[in-house]
Structures are given as structure tokens and as C-alpha cells.
Amino acid sequence: MSVSVRFLGTGDAFNARGRCHASYLVEAPSGTLLLDCGASALLAMQRDGVDIERLDAICLSHLHGDHFAGLPFLFIAQTFDVPRRRPLTIVGPPGTRARVEDLFRAMYRDLAARPLPFEARYVEVSGGTRTPIGSAELLSFAVPHQATEISLGYRLEIDGKVVLYSGDTGWTEALVTLSQGVDLFICECCFYETQVDFHIDYPRLAAERRRFGCRRLVLSHCGREVLAHRDEITEEIASDGLVVAL
Predict the structure, then answer these.
(1) Catalytic site positions
(2) Which of 30, 164, 204, 233 shows the greatest Cβ crowding within 10 Å of its Cβ?
(3) Is the pTM of this model over 0.85?
(4) Which residue, among 59, 58, 71, has the nearest Cα to 111 in the 3D structure?
């Protein structure tokens, strides 16, 4: 078994062109991780026939609903549909445990009042933190996306392969630095005409493209502007269900 990345959801918060919310499954001989768990993540896993029992960890880039609101659905699936017994590691920025538990209570009050049948192990990280997950190592880095709360990108090393995930971010030089030598760079590209400091637009990304040192760049978290201009975009744009073997 080689390392692969399955693009479960590649859309923005508004599910542009019917795309699922952000979620990326990394499968390797030594473990299976989910990068973000948007509201439609379980739907996407069911669509693609993913065995959710194999999940070892979920790594949340930030606490916006299109990136973490799928967790309550995963919790109830692993309580009733595919019962889980082994621990599940949930990595995220400061405040992750409280926000996830608050959301679970808001959605399923009675169930959230009872212990899960498995242990949810929360690991809260900030920028510059190296977190071991089994034999894999996750490097978190802060990105410009929210005014007050921390948003993160991740650089994952697993079984000799390296995946860089930008999360949601405006332009930052960290993307250039951390892209050097990586096998796959999953980079958000939310806009085309619109320019803001908390998301990347395609013209800015195209202007910086030559500085990236990744072997493969795939654009994701694409909004309607980007998808409307896809014939003019030379970089690879992800679609739901894409599988990249590393």
C-alpha cells in the first residue's frame, strides 16, 4: 500500500457547484488521517466507500463549520452505525475540544450528555508545533485567516512522503518556505476577481507559483469565481473524489 490522498470535499463554505466541504483523507501503511472534517465529510466518505473504522486521527485547520462541523455526524456514526472502540485523536487549534463538544451538544443534546463509546483524545496546537501521530509527524503553522482565533496549515510527513495543506489562508510566505520538497501541496484558492487578505485569489497564486518547491500542486476550496474561470487556469483544480497516489 502506498501513500494516497483522497479529496473528499473540495468546495468552499457555500458548496460552490455542488462540491462537498473541505476534507482530505490521507491513507498510508502506518495510518489513516483526515485533514479537516467539514459538515459533509461523512457523506463524502460514504460516497467513496471509505471505511471510517480505519481513521486514526482528524486534524482540524480551524474552527469554521465548513472545516469541523462534520465531527458530530462522525461521532454518531461511530456510536451506532459502525461502532468504534479504539481511541480517536483530534488535533486542532486552541479551543478545539470546547468548540467540538459545544457543537455536539447543540446538535445531539441527549447523546452528547453520555460518554462516547470510544476515547476522543484532543491535542490542541499552535503555530510551530510538531505533533507525533503514530509514526507520522504533523507540523502546524499559523496562517492569516481569522481576526482573533488561530487558523493553521499543516505539513504532514508520513511513510516517507510529505503533504502540505494550507487550510484557509491569505497569502503568506510560509507557503513558499514549507512547500520546498513536498510531494503534494493542497492549496486553497477561493477567489479569482475578489482580493482579500484572508483567502488566496488565483492571480496572486499564479504570480507566486514558480517559487513553490512542491512536486505537485492541487488547488482546492474553490469558490464560484475560480470555477467560472477554470478554462483560464493552468494549475490543477481538485474535484470531489480525486485520489492522488504519492
Answers:
(1) 66
(2) 164
(3) yes
(4) 71
